[in-house]
Structure formats: structure tokens, C-alpha cells
Amino acid sequence: MQLEHLLGIEPLQPQQIKKILDLADYYADQNRINAQNNNALAGCTQVNMFFEHSTRTQASFEIAGKRLGADVMNMSMEASSIKKGETLIDTALTLNAMRPDLLVVRHPHSGAVDLLAQKVNCAVLNAGDGSHEHPTQALLDALTIRRSKGRLQRLNIAICGDVAHSRVARSNIILLGKMENRLRLVGPSTLMPSNINEFGVEVFYDIKQGLRDVDVVMMLRLQRERMDGGFIPSEREYYHRYGLDAKKLSYAKPDAIVMHPGPMNRGVEIDGEIADDLRHSVIQEQVEMGVAVRMAAMDILMRNRRKNTKETNI
Ligand code: NCD
Question: Is 200 helix (H, G, I), strand (E, B) or coil?
Fold first, then answer.
């Protein structure tokens, strides 16, 4: 598998997705039995550059790197030279000159991480760029689904809420579509992307119809920070119409799983009790699978890099 960077799900073949998930599955089991650290990333320098606030994703990448023996550095971009006027590319070139092996980047602008990857010699992992892609989130969601349902094909999956602003939704639509599932998007028309017809999925504006007989209910956070106007009448009204509660969930299959990428707005897109109900909710498992998927992705990128880099032992 000759992946140099992981910038999105779009360029991946189903076979490559499966390979990442298989390795992640192995790491998930290892993590559970508290197996001895494997040193797949020993000697590698991993730099996490987060230009947007993040709690779980940054922590997850940090833990994943450390579990594999990498030297991990978190750059606080709030305090960085970007504040002094340096461009993203100059920051990248400066870092590149320090010869890291892996850059994990989150940025508020779609396409910024791809651009950066063109300017550096190390492997780049997209940890979320604007409303474009968030590949490791889609992979961890896929692994969670595969472990819960025993397969990742022919499932009815509803992605609900603020689809328009969500890189999680975009990466998931691409991944779950490549793996031949039946996808539905559910939410108000104001929160659907304008090019919705290009996605080749069913769209429902009524959540009860949208959830009927689905195997997987994936809720999305209402992304207030990406909205610049009145996309919804009020949070109360939104909860009433689209917030997942027991009544709405009862339209899904009895063994349906409930997912959310976090951070959750309880009482806005999801009822707190549903989020905590372990008969359906796999939200904590998603977090757990996040570490395993990031270990797998970084392991594969570093193996490819070792294969491709000429030794410069002089
Ligand atoms: C998501 C993100 O940042 O895109 N969260 C995450 O990665 N844990 C989803 C979100 O912010 O709603």
C-alpha cells in the first residue's frame, strides 16, 4: 500500500481502507489487553499542528504516537508565529527544515492541509480541514460500525443533522459509499450541502422517515462556529424536530447503533440519556477506536516512508 500522506478518504481504494481497518482492529485488541508497546514509530518525530481547537482528536493522535514509540510534539498554533503574520506555508517550510517524519495538521480552511503537504518532505496526516475532510474520523467510525455489526457492507446508515458544515459527514459519505452501504442524509434543508444531488444518497427532511429501519444512526454536532446566519430557528426548535431522543430512535431497527463524533451538544442534537444508553450508544467506543485507527494510519505511513526514503548516512 503506497500511501504517502493521508489527506482524505476520496483517493483511497476500498482495499486500502480495509487494510487500514484490519491493522487498526489489531491495535484495538492490543490496546485492550494492555499489550507491551510496539515500537513501530521509534525514532520518528511526530508534530501535531492544530490551527483549530481540539481536545479529543489531538489527544488521540498524541496517545497513538506515544503508544508506538514516536517522539511527539504538540505545537500550540495559538502562540505560534502565525499570530505574528507568518503564512501557513512559511511555518510549514520552517518546520520541514527541522526534518520531522510526520505532521498531523488540523486547519479551519478546506484544502489547507493538501497545500501544506505539497510543500514538505514528511508524511502529512489531515486531522480535519474546514468542512472538507476528516479521514481518521471516518475510518474510526467505519471500524466501530464493523466491530458492532460484523460487517461494513449493505447497511442502512442515516447521517443526521448539520451535514452542510461537517467534514465528518463528507468523509463518512465517501467511505461508507465506497464500501457499498445505503446512505441517507437527514436534516433541515438549510443544513444540507448545496450540491447534495452529487452525493448519490437519499435525503430526508423528516427524521422519523429518515430513521425508519436503519442499522446505524450517526448524529452530527450543530457547528455554530461555521454558521454565519440563521440556519435554524432556535436550538429548542431544532431539538424538537431533529434531536435524537428515544421516540425518534424507535423508528430505527431495534439493534441500531447510535454514533456521534463529539463534542456533543446534549439537548441540542441528541438527548443525554440516549447518548449514555449502552444498549445503542457506541460513542465511547468511537473514541477508543480513534486511537487504534490513528496508530494504524501512522504505522502505515511510516512504513511507506522508510521504504521510499534513501538512507543518508554520511
Ligand atoms: C469533529 C471535527 O472536529 O470535525 N470532531 C472531532 O474530530 N472529534 C466533529 C465536530 O467538531 O463536530
Answer: coil
**Whether residue 226 has its Cβ less than 6 Å from ligand 1:** no
Return the residue whose CA atom lies nearest to atom 7 of ligand 1.
Answer: 57
Question: Which residue among 221, 264, 269 has the greatest number of ligand 1 atoms within 8 angstroms of its CB, and so is best to mutate?
Answer: 221
Distances (CA, A) of 156 to 177, 202, 274: 11, 11, 20
Question: Which residue, by CA, sits nearest to atom 1 of ligand 1?
Answer: 261
pLDDT, tens only, 268-300: 999 999 999 999 999 999 999 999 999 999 999
pTM: 0.95
By the 8 A CB rule, do 91 and 115 touch? no
Going from the Cα of 94 to the center of ligand 1, the distance in angstroms, rounded, reads 28
Q: What residues contact residue 292 under an 8 Å CB cut-off, 6+ apart?
A: 24, 25, 27, 28, 31, 64, 140, 143
> Which residue matches cell numbers 554520511?
314
Measured CA to CA in angstroms, residue 182 lies from 218, 269, 270 at distances of 13, 22, 23
Instruction: Pick the closest to residue 162 from 106, 247, 219 (CA basis).
Output: 219
Ligand 1: atom nearest CA of 54 is 3
